[in-house]
Amino acid sequence: MRHSSQSEMMPTLKTDSEQIKAVRLNIKLCKRKIRLEEQRLGILRQRLIQLTADDESRSAT
Question: Quick one: DSSP state of residue 2?
Fold first, then answer.
């Protein structure tokens, strides 16, 4: 299987400024994804703490 290069997959951009804009947009999207993942992890972490606390209180009785 032949691997396509990065330039083949991305649409060709004419100027440096267009490339810079595209990269900035990509960074913005990545940061948004990271924030969403961090929120999700926070929720999961809270849930885990709650479950652990419930479990410990159950085993204490």
Answer: P
The residue type found at 9 is: M
Burial 15-29 (b: 16+ CB within 10 A, else e): eeeeeeeeeeeeeee
Query: For residue 6, what pLDDT is reported?
Result: 53
Other CB atoms within 10 A of residue 13 CB: 14
pTM of the model: 0.58
Decide if 38 contacts 32 (C-beta within 8 A): no
Taken in order 18, 24, 25, 27, is the CA torsion positive or negative? Answer: positive
User: What is the C-alpha separation between 22 and 32, in angstroms, rounded?
Assistant: 15
